[in-house]
């Protein structure tokens, strides 16, 4: 398939350059107050087979948050056709966007919320190699800078816990990767089971984060030589020493999903690992989808359906995986709703060969936004485009 893309890159490039986007009606992509959904497209790297031309066009003039993803298809009559899919989310971060800009967009609010007794959560999800670890690790550093700047050590005390979840097994990355047990307390809330470390000052926090990173399990995938085959959860607990209340900030780097054709080359152990990752990602998706629905329901003025009956809140299956059990505290929309906020970053690869996985990632992002999917636009290469591509090949 990659051969087909490579062979037709000049045609693809010409079709994308001539693409005329259809205006999208503004649908629910303004984000529910408690969840903001962003997309980050990573820059091209040497390992991108189809490097040379991006599969996405954005931003659209006057349509913030809308991007078009283009794919090339064999046409039964021989001439390839371009299929373009548009997606609408709250924020778009292109390859040129810095982590500081991402931080400024919403993270700062999450830090303030956590400093004031609330719970802020940021997730990065997406295909393997799409930049989740890169993004989250830099955001962790910016959180540290911000906590130090806002006076972490005076009226606020910071406790750090960093764990890794591989399947249903957890490891404490700040205690030499010691296995941990996830236990429920008397109120039925799952505890991380890892030690909390009091961290003071910039250097101590940075050292702890670096130490945890060195204990993270990585394995090569077809897309990433050092792929994190586990989820990492970094939790800052910020204690207000005057009032005695604590706020929480979770930064979550999820294990990357792999395309079915890439998984096919795995042995039995990697297959099991992939299955476990998929089960936990799917449980998280169900909970996030339920949360998005719950928030949408809560934001409607009337909670009654047209028949006058009370609408039933969606079921959120937190107990389906270790990942969702430990995150219940951060995601449960029925608990202290005004004090929890989530930022989701859907990370995508920029290349044509990854379009199917990119579309999966973006469809999910749209669903969390409550956006109505838009129809696909098909462009057939005109004779003029074909002649100009052939002429440039001859030169
Ligand atoms: N914004 C970026 N700028 C420059 N390089 C980047 C960027 N994002 C990612 N990379 C590089 O891309 C490669 C893959 O990134 P990363 O390991 O963060 O992906 P991932 O989504 O966490 O993958 P996995 O799910 O396999 O762990 C790394 O070499 C990383 O340095």
Task: Give an account of the 3D structure.
This protein is α+β, with helices and mostly antiparallel strands. The chain folds into two domains: 1-94 and 352-395, no CATH class; 96-296 and 313-349, Kinesin (3-Layer(aba) Sandwich). 35% of the residues lie in helices and 24% in strands. The chain has helices at residues 2-7, 9-18, 99-115, 132-149, 201-214, 260-263, 268-299, 322-331, 355-369, 383-394; strands spanning 35-41, 56-57, 66-73, 81-88, 91-93, 119-126, 156-166, 169-172, 178-180, 183-184, 190-191, 197-199, 218-219, 227-228, 231-240, 246-253, 340-348, 377-380. The strands form four sheets. Strands 1, 5, 6, 7, 8, 9, 12, 15, 16 and 17 form a ten-stranded mixed sheet that branches. A four-stranded antiparallel sheet has the order 2-3-4-18. A two-stranded antiparallel sheet has the order 10-11. α3 crosses α4 (132-149) and α7 packs parallel to α8 (322-331). The radius of gyration is 22 Å and the shape is globular. It comes from Thyridium curvatum. InterPro entries: Kinesin-like_fam, Kinesin_motor_dom, Kinesin_motor_dom_sf, P-loop_NTPase.
Summary?
The chain is α+β, with helices and mostly antiparallel strands and 395 residues long.
